[in-house]
Amino acid sequence: MARRWTNRYRAVEMDGIAASYDVVVVGAGPAGIMAAVESARTARSVLLVEASSLPREKSCGGMLNLYSRRALEPYGTVPEEMILDPKWIDFRYYHIDREVKKPTQVRFLNVDRGMFDEWLLSFLPANVHVACGVRLADLWQSPVKARVLLKGLRADGSRAEASVDCSYLIAADGPRATVRERLGLRPFDRYITVQEYASIERGAIEPYFDCIYSKEFDRDYGIGYIMPKGDVAIIGSIFYPGSRDVERKHEDVLDRLRDIYPFGESVKRETWIAAHLRRPADLVAGKGRVLLAGEGGGFLSCTSGEGISFALNSGIMAGKAVAAAFEDDSLVASSALECYERALKPMKKNLAFRMGMFPIMNNYACKNLACLVPTPLVSKMTERL
Fold first, then answer.
1. Is 215 helix (H, G, I), strand (E, B) or coil?
2. Where are the domains of the chain?
3. Helix %, strand %, coil % for the chain, to 5?
């Protein structure tokens, strides 16, 4: 039986939302939670709103790489209860057409994603109010404050809305990026992801996070991945923006993969979206009193799709920047965004490099060429991607 972590935050319904907070955070994924944790160190009141229930159902592999684990070290050890079998999974490229596998030394901790989010929520202090089933509908800002329009349901099921003022807004609202669009920034093109959970016998699949590719699959198919997680395996298909009939195309992929992997019956399927990042200009820290963290700011890997480490780190940076602004009242209003921009420079540089590499990695001829590259070199390159 999994242990339930103690929550110190205050849960509020729509009618319990106050007219003003020092900070409003939109989105209670890793980026939003960490932004709320850090900003609450000096802010007197923080409102964290989440459109769904908590802990969230998130279509995600639940793999913690080295950078995720480092980001979490100050907050405690990852609890054993949430770690799945196999505990450690290494990243491996698998070119199905050429039957070439390239294992790397890039290692992930294999966790239950729902429990992981629940554990993160336990970090929130008592001065954070959390409102579930509440979404941001609009926002405005002036040099002295931001104002958000929130919509949700009351306890009796009736619709309600609330206008809330804040000194800073931190948006961690994922690939839909509502806040980003309200700021007048270019919306993302979006991949479509289909994630299948199929039953497996424990130990039947090697302990690898397989990144798979085959020209046999539909032209809309970008890349796929497979990973064992206890009694199930996750089989993911990523389709290019604008793709249609993706579930049927995903079924075609499954039919082919069942000839290779010992998958049992499918137990669940999820469909979601992911931001398609193409240029460094897609990476935006925010505007005025609004800071963007996680995927809403463009902070995820366009080459591997890995997003948890970027969400955690950008959320921590955004929260610390806002906390620093509250700590020193003499700082000008733009200080939080400027501080955040400085902190993000290494991350932006890293992601810009990945964007430059993506067209090369996504080229079929280059995928074939990679089959001839020595495995240690493939592993070394993967560490940067």
1. coil
2. 10-58+114-188+277-362
3. 35, 30, 35
